[in-house]
Amino acid sequence: MSVLITPIAFLVTLGVLIVVHEFGHYLAARACGVRVLRFSVGFGRPLWARRFFPDGTEWVIAAFPIGGYVKMLDEHEGPVSPEALPQAFNRQPVWRRMVIVAAGPLANFLLALLIYWGLFLHGMPGLRPVIDAPAPGTPAAVAGLTKGDTLEVIAGEPVAVWDDVHWTLLSRLGRASQLEVWVRKADGRRAVYVLRIAADDGADQGRAFLTRLGLAPARFLQPRIGEVLPDSPAAAAGLQTGDWVVAVNGEPVDSWQALVEKIRRHPGQALTLRVLREGRNVEIVVTPRAETVQDERIGRIGASAYAFTTVRHGVLGALVAGARKTWDGAVLSVQLLWKMLWGEVSWRNLSGPVAIADYAGQTAQMGWLPWLLFLALLSVSLGVLNLLPVPVLDGGHLLYHVGEIITGRPPSEKILMLGQRIGMALLFTLMLFALYNDINRLLGP
User: Where do transmembrane segments lie in this chain (predicted)?
Assistant: First the structure.
């Protein structure tokens, strides 16, 4: 069954993105009074076709699933009867045509915003940015960061989970930077370091560039208190987020697993915890609540590991956070494309359909939250890609319309045909690069 997860997840992911994108075009066309002849998911021979609504639109699922299109009534596509001319795309004012063209990418951005909004409302789980011992010679080691440091602020940007660290540093990829990094030390003290990043640090490493900087996640769960549940034994005893449990009843503990095991073995029995809090040793007495799990009586105190956290906002806060995450993703995509174009970042970072299918399968097996995050990220990337000023893409059509506004007339058939050839050549070259990278990743070590 697991063998089928990757292709199914890939098709579902692609299907959602295509339907949302094309539905944006469809709704805008209908709102502007343009007749839509066909709404197709995929290209080539139709495998399934139906007409559901009185507007006469044909809804199609085609044989080649990578892509889709909305076919509108247009004199450039075929003859149009005189009475139907007001519904033709090419007869609309230029601003309406621009709205229809831009609606597809905007729908992708809206999808990402809604996903992020829902996830922030639900609670976005993540791994707290606690670092392992930086490898000697890496920028983190040179700066003075040490094992167990928790990253809190990088270059003025708060970072709550490792994904925040990744996005914040990814925007610096390909250029030299000096970044102020605020960390919380293992004993609770705060410290500030300067991280110096060279122009070529991680330029062709993708997500692994964090490791090259010396910022690898801690490889073990520390015996530190994370989230403390309300009305729990941990809350009643006064345990706080960030408390480092040094010993239980005088016996040292060196990992979260060891701490959990000691608590499980003492249901209903008072335990004396020696914790390190802001550089001070504090003794706390906690009585684990007795619970029965699979016929076994165990103790629990209602606290999670410090390594994990959940980022959660209210309705308005989640909307703001979702909008910011969507915007940051779009800006970062543009920055990386620009840096690739000028050689500041390697083209090896480019991914194609094979990599997308692999990531879709991996995230689907991890659960619906990781898959939704991947879907939102991909939706933003698709929106940005379609806005590039390349003929055959939405951005290319917008460029034509801007030229029409400037010159007062639409581009000639000759220019349109030339642009079509150039656009197809560019997209085909881009696809070859991406496919080559995908094959290299599969065959590489």
Answer: 6-28, 99-119, 368-388, 415-436
